[in-house]
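The following record pairs a protein chain with its ligand, DI6.
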Amino acid sequence: MKTLWHNCHAASMANGTYSIIENAAIVTEGAHIAWIGPHSELPDQGDIEAVDLNGAWVTPGLIDCHTHTVFGGNRSGEFEQRLQGVSYAEIAAAGGGIASTVRATRAASEAELFASAERRLQQLMKDGVTTVEIKSGYGLDLANERKMLRVARQLGEKLPVTVRSTCLAAHALPPEYKDRADDYIAHICGEMLPALAAENLVDAVDAFCEYLAFSTDQVEQVFITAGQLGLPVKLHAEQLSSLHGSSLAARYQALSADHLEFMTEEDAIAMAASGTVAVLLPGAFYFLRETQLPPMDALRKHGVKIAIATDLNPGTSPGLSLRLMLNMACTLFRMTPEEALAGATIHAAKALGMADTHGSLEAGKIADFVAWSIERPADLAYWLGGDLEKRVVRHGVESTF
Ligand code: DI6
Ligand code: FE
């Protein structure tokens, strides 16, 4: 079935720029874009269904390429404590922090995790998100990581959104492995990853490379296992200190290295050479009141592709709006609205290994797009959240939710 979407302008985001088409027309055929261009050049389509978009701006569906949407409980109590002067380290020493989310996630049933994650995912979708990555990493044992990844899969089956699930078993040390990080890594590589991959629950493998999490040597073990299982890798790197995890990620052709405030120019050169996307997470930077900015000049100079994501998680970025993150990327990191939008579309697709099919409006790609009632594309990075008027099309079909 073919449909003509017309009376619109498009920011197609091909090549990572707005690539504006004024007075555009888009023809979808089934789930794909069959044709896009200026309406005046539209080849004769015969008698097809036409949808008038009333002068809207059409962009690719937004892609949130780094989230921890599935978790039990939340940590607003810790937020209150921190604002009263209790430090993150003190909270962690008292059993809070990631450990408290691990307890709540382990205690929750699959149905409970689904219900709370569905509410958060619906918030992201209200913002025009049509593809989202969801990480595990609050289960930290086989049964509970499996539970989280199953919930991620179910979200993709039940909601009109494409979900990529990432195994982040190497997020933190579970209490059973206290002071035995190498043993936990061996367990991840020997038991957890092979089992979860065999159950087809894993699209990519991630780890948290940080002095308070896992070392580059430990992360490398995880990457080697992922390679043996045929799974691509990603890495939380250089968020709080410089361990050159991003260079390690580049050596393993990682899809992305994420956070990166403390990365060096050498890391940027390595990432550029391997095509590893830099995923910047301004929500975590803001929420932790960080001051070290990611090295924007080095990333730009060496041509590293930059994506922007919410990092939606209960501890460091309870961010429910990807558009708000675009604004923060501009105000905090000095990105342009055009760079920010590329970061939530085509470069985010690349960070998920999906750039051949998603992230820009081009013939042959999946027909995931949003028709926004806005004046110009920069509006998407301009408004601080809010529910902008829009129509969302996924796989060629208008979503209502
Ligand atoms: N980096 C982060 O900012 C989050 N995880 C990570 O690897 C923190 C997650 C949490 O505090 O729950
Ligand atoms: Fe994260």
